[in-house]
Amino acid sequence: MLGADLVVLPLLVAVAYALRLNTLTPQIHDAWLFVAAPLVAVPILYFTGFYKSIVRYLGAEVAWSLLAGVLISVAVLAGASYMVADAAIPRSIFLIWGMLAVLYLGGSRFLMRRFLVKILGGLNRQPVAVFGAGGAGAQLVSGLQSSTEFFPALVVDDDTSKQGTLLAGVPVVPRKALEKAARQGKVSAVLMAVPSISRPRRMEIVRWLETLNIRVQTVPGIADIAMGKARLEEVRDVAIEDLLGRDPVPPRQDLLHRCVSGKHVLVTGAGGSIGSELCRQILKLSPSQLVLFEQSEFALYAIEKELRKLAVSQGLKVDIVPVLGSVVNRGLMARLCAEHRVDTVYHAAAYKHVPIVESNPSSGVRNNILGTLEAAQGAEAAGVQHFILVSTDKAVRPTNVMGATKRFAELVLQAMASRGSDTVFSMVRFGNVLGSSGSVVPLFRDQICHGGPVTVTHPDVIRYFMTIPEASQLVIQAGAMARGGEVFVLDMGEPVRIVDLAITMIHLMGLSVKDESNPHGDIGLSFSGLRPGEKLYEELIIGECSVRTEHEMIMQASEESLNWDEVQFALEAFRKALERGDNAAMKSLLRTYVAGYAPGSTGSQETAAMATRELPRRVSNAVSLPD
């Protein structure tokens, strides 16, 4: 390009004369200008940085170096002309030459850039569509034009005022044009560049894109970009978490801070899915001390390292104390709470994987029941103000050992609260959290990436879902409202049919479902049957009675409980059964004391069937399911 400039810049002097004198054959007596123009302009352009830009990745910043270089060159040449004897060069020649130089130098670079990007780079790049012609879309298109992986073929936007325009040279079109391009195979994926829209709006767009059977990806959110966690051009698959539930309700700051800010807080199970997120949320609320209690050495190491880094990056002065141990160790919680003068305990330590606990009932009883008892009594003995148990919807009319042990853990705390205690005991019950260990979403994603089939236990299985951060914030807020013995229930939004979730994930990855109506599809569905202890439909309240609280997303359940003498008698029976290793006796005790525990059933069939009928399909072209 520099060599071309040395040839063209002198020719532009002749063109400037021709325009100025209005003739194709002007008489030019000042031949020195033909030599001076390139010898002056090229070094100046070099020092302004014009030649430092790589043509293929040329951006708008090159315009400033070009304008500065040409203006300085015009000034130098005009000044030199007045210093040369017999110089009779019209002053307008320099202005005309400068404008021609800008047109040539800028135009040649951008034409060459377009050639390199579209011709050479497009040979092995995938054509994609960008959804969104706003600021994020413009930046994404600009980034993709220099990408070696994707090529922006078109931009889609619902704003009619933008349709028909060009965005960085790429046409902006309505949805119908994308439908046509998808049918003709002219685009291989859609990249969503609408990071700031609401969740309902995002869901509507993705549900429509899902019908096109092409891969749907998205750019990171504005918050992640602003915090430096991601770059705009870093596209990723659409997170199914973005499509479930609703827009999170902003937390009430007074409830968040009530039991945490300036206090000594202890979290059991701090390295688990819920416990670790609780720790992250608690750290942001600036407690005086945060005690991490965890039995897994690696999990404790990982969460401590993450929290210390987070504290340094956000300038938080919080004393973080890692403690390795188990809640079943008698007296350990009392010593910890007393030594660290703990004000609030969030008890998230539990065995929660249904089939595993079903196969190991003694471990479930020891950890979920006796572990909760030891933690609660230790906190009470040390004078802890608030003790909050993280419970589960599987504790409602349980069909498995895990749910039954969690319900009995609730009964323990309810009994301790009813007999009188200076410690405020409460429970927070919610459903499945997205991204937790054992969650179905990463399992489905892995199965799709490996070519399927996607295994679903039953066509009618329905679950509630909530994101881990929202669930953790609601746990903190619910605990702050407790007066003693309450069972709080979180508003989980609308339930989701798991088979629809699987189909949605298949479509969003640009694949089709393989079934009887589409035998040549990409990914099949396999129904493996309910696992031991699983229910078709989870519930959040045992009875029919629940009342609203001061928080719109939190309800309080009104449920029967046992008195402290009954609980003590049952606990002693559990201990004796554990000593004998008598799993049958432990299950029998759970049936005796946990109302509604029906091992082996699939839950409320009528409720599940009704919910299945009333729940709308989440996808427009769902597969045909067997009766």
From TrEMBL:
Transmembrane region(s): 28-50, 62-82, 88-106
Keywords linked to the UniProt accession: Membrane, Transmembrane, Transmembrane helix
Domain Polysaccharide biosynthesis protein CapD-like: 265-558
InterPro entries associated with the record: NAD(P)-bd_dom_sf, Polysac_CapD-like, Polysaccharide_Synthase-Rel, SAM-dependent_MTases_sf
Short name of one Pfam family: CoA_binding_3
Record bears the keyword Hydrolase: no
Keyword field contains Membrane: yes
UniProt family annotation: Belongs to the polysaccharide synthase family.
Protein name per UniProt: Polysaccharide biosynthesis protein
Organism per entry: Alcanivorax nanhaiticus
